[in-house]
């Protein structure tokens, strides 16, 4: 089935992009010999992650904004979104809104002063 094959390819591409992003973000100065090699390696990882030859400026901006958006979410929301394998900013935003709605329906609120979520008894 074409739809299943397309979904599998898109998922594999998303997994690959995530691995490349992690290589870029976690690379350490000590992993190369000197500043020039560090810069060259970071540039290579960045190109592999963002695929500048394949993506438009708008797509690259979306990837960067989406990465930061996910980084600042409360841990429970971030985990819930990742379990649903969202592949676009629209999907991620929709899942974040669904997460909040689900919490309201279940009577769960964010505890003041922290990121821990607790059930409110009424």
From TrEMBL:
Pfam families per UniProt: SCAN
Alphabetic keyword roster: Nucleus
Signal peptide from the UniProt entry: none
Matches recorded under InterPro entries: SCAN-C2H2_zinc_finger, SCAN_dom, SCAN_sf
Residues of the SCAN box domain: 21-99
Name assigned to this protein: SCAN box domain-containing protein
Protein species of origin: Micrurus carvalhoi
Taxon lineage: Eukaryota, Metazoa, Chordata, Craniata, Vertebrata
């Amino acid at each position: 089935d074409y739809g299943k094959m397309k979904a599998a390819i898109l998922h594999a591409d998303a997994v690959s992009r995530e691995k490349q992003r992690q290589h870029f973000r976690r690379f350490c100065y000590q992993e190369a010999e000197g500043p020039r090699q560090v810069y060259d390696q970071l540039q290579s990882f960045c190109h592999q992650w963002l695929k500048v030859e394949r993506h438009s400026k708008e797509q690259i901006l979306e990837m960067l904004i989406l990465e930061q958006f996910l980084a600042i979410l409360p841990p429970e929301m971030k985990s819930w979104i990742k379990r649903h394998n969202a592949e676009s900013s629209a999907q991620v935003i929709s899942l974040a809104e669904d997460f909040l709605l689900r919490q309201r329906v279940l009577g769960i609120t964010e505890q003041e002063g922290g990121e821990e979520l607790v059930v409110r008894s009424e």
